[in-house]
């Protein structure tokens, strides 16, 4: 062999060995890349925690967990059992039914735009979706399973260990379970209603005459004119109260302490509950924290002429006067907050 060729061959062999022979470099997995939600310009910046960035792998895992009944004590109840997509991820029952037919005390709240949520549950006892995700597991009236048993079942499953390894780089744990569920719930968004189209276009002809009248009643606070001014409690892009999250809604006081159960302030917080979003409200019946009203008409009847029967501490509710025409118009407007795509989106359905 030519002396000059020998060093070249040796160097080439070393380089070939260092580069792993003919094995190509690993292909990046896009399901592990942080993703951003596609949202309209009139929505604020989403609240995504830095220690739990959104990835498609976490969303897919969270969705599988969300629909899995095997994660309840008797394998009969999943998160999705009390949060049905056709009902805007709420429960058509006044209160939800858990394992062994046990019933709770409050209506299951809708899952939509929770990526912006400040507090979870009617009394706001959980400040993050990660905290919220494990509470139904531990509640004996809901899924009634311990975190230790949850981890045992996930670890023993044929698929979950690989899915957790892929999404988190580790074994199934209750903490990672909560992070996956929270990530899926943050992906469930609603922003394509008729009202959103109006905000984007500023074209009022999108609405019927009755819907437009309802919008004016909902938002108008012109001095000297009687308006219900619903937006004071159900304001902002999500039609909930981002400034004063908890309020009483004029219901008769009852043993239900509401927010006071969390804060211990029974003077100020007794009977106050989280103000729910009105998006897709025509699909979230029954209404109120205890599901006492079956229809939007019953809700309007509750608010009609509140000035002659003052209950609670909310000054806006105590000054509402509504005619039958007002109620019809407001309900017509509320139905423009429905989002057909959100209600049928296959991305929110089990694979």
Shape: globular
The overall strand count is 2
What integer value in Å does the Rg equal? 26 Å
In the sheet with the most strands, the strands line up as: 1-2
In N-to-C order, the SSE pattern is HHHHHHHHEHEHHH
| Overall pLDDT score | 89
Question: Unreliable segments (pLDDT under 50, ≥5 consecutive)?
Answer: 1-19
Residue share in β-strands? under 5%
Q: Summarize the amount of helix as a percent range.
A: 25-40%
**H/I helix tally:** 12
> Largest sheet, if any?
2 strands, antiparallel
User: N-to-C terminal Cα separation, in Å?
Assistant: 62 Å
**Estimated structural class:** mainly alpha
Could you characterize the architecture of this molecule?
It is a single chain. The chain is mainly α. Helices cover 33% and strands 1% of the residues. The chain contains twelve helices and two strands. The protein has a two-stranded antiparallel sheet. Helix 2 packs antiparallel against helix 5 (160-168) and helix 2 (56-66) packs across helix 6. It starts with a helix and ends in a 7-residue tail after the last helix.
């Amino acid at each position: 062999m030519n002396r000059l060729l020998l060093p070249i061959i040796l160097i080439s062999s070393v380089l070939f060995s260092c580069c792993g022979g003919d094995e190509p470099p690993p292909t990046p997995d896009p399901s592990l890349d942080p993703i951003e939600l596609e949202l309209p310009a009139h929505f604020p910046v989403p609240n995504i925690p830095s220690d739990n960035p959104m990835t498609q792998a976490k969303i897919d895992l969270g969705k599988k967990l969300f629909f899995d009944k095997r994660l309840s004590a008797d394998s009969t109840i999943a998160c999705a059992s009390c949060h049905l997509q056709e009902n805007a991820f709420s429960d058509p029952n006044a209160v939800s039914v858990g394992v062994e037919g046990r019933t709770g005390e409050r209506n299951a709240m809708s899952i939509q735009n929770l990526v912006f949520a400040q507090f979870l549950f009617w009394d706001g006892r959980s400040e993050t979706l990660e905290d919220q995700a494990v509470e139904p597991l531990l509640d004996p009236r809901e899924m009634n399973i311990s975190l230790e048993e949850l981890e045992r079942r996930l670890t023993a499953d044929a698929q979950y260990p690989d899915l957790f390894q892929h999404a988190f780089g580790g074994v199934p744990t209750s903490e990672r379970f909560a992070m996956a569920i929270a990530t899926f719930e943050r992906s469930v968004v609603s922003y394509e209603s008729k009202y959103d189209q109006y905000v984007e276009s500023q074209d009022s002809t999108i609405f019927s005459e009755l819907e437009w009248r309802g919008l004016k009643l909902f938002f108008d606070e012109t001095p000297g004119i009687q308006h219900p001014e619903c937006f004071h409690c159900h304001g902002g892009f999500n039609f909930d109260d981002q400034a004063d999250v908890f309020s009483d809604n004029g219901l008769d006081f009852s043993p239900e302490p509401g927010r006071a159960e969390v804060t211990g302030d029974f003077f100020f917080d007794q009977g106050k509950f989280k103000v729910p979003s009105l998006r897709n409200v025509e699909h979230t019946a029954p209404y109120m924290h205890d599901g006492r009203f079956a229809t939007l008409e019953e809700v309007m009847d509750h608010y009609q002429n509140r000035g002659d029967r003052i209950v609670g501490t909310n000054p806006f509710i105590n000054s509402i006067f509504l005619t039958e025409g007002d109620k019809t118009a407001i309900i017509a407007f509320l139905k423009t907050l429905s989002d057909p795509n959100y209600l049928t989106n296959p991305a929110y359905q089990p694979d």
